[in-house]
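cache lookup: miss for this entity combination. No prior model stored, computing from scratch. Input as submitted by user K.M.:
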Amino acid sequence: DQQVKQNSPSLSVQEGRISILNCDYTNSMFDYFLWYKKYPAEGPTFLISISSIKDKNEDGRFTVFLNKSAKHLSLHIVPSQPGDSAVYFCAPAYNQGGKLIFGQGTELSVKP
Amino acid sequence: ETGVTQTPRHLVMGMTNKKSLKCEQHLGHNAMYWYKQSAKKPLELMFVYNFKEQTENNSVPSRFSPECPNSSHLFLHLHTLQPEDSALYLCASSQDGPRTEAFFGQGTRLTVV
């Protein structure tokens, strides 16, 4: 029973363009959503989050959109930079904090 | 420096060996976690500790034995592992409460031969 799905295992974009990473979830009890970024041989690092009471959260080049009715969220990176090349994980959570459920990850490659 | 330190970074062990992974967090968090990442799979939650008490065990085989002596330290004791247990083992910590993110260590790359 996979509660979180990132259906695109990889994504390649040109430097300066927009990267859009998608995530679908099945459990309507999730009320807090996080994105993590992971470089090879390192642990994931927190990138951005959104509460279920919002539909958009922006932090610099990173924006996360949440569509609760569709149980879908997306991460937009614009403009994309080569240093953004990493694996991005979507991680819904419950409002009481703590345990995260991770998607399979999407490997983003930003080409100069 | 992420505040969560895991040792060793790499470990190769035989199927009859006993070894331990160590995790230490310097963030004052009260919850700690073990995750497993196998190739091409999502991160899988293995164990959760809150205030040193194990609150979750996600059907992990008994050849993996966690220990949390205090809220800053977490161990994963390994014995009689199988080659399919080879993976990246990640420790994380968080402050128990609403809308908090978890901080991860760099992981231990385990190879069972």
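stored under new cache key. Chain B touches chain A through 32 residues (CB under 8 Å).
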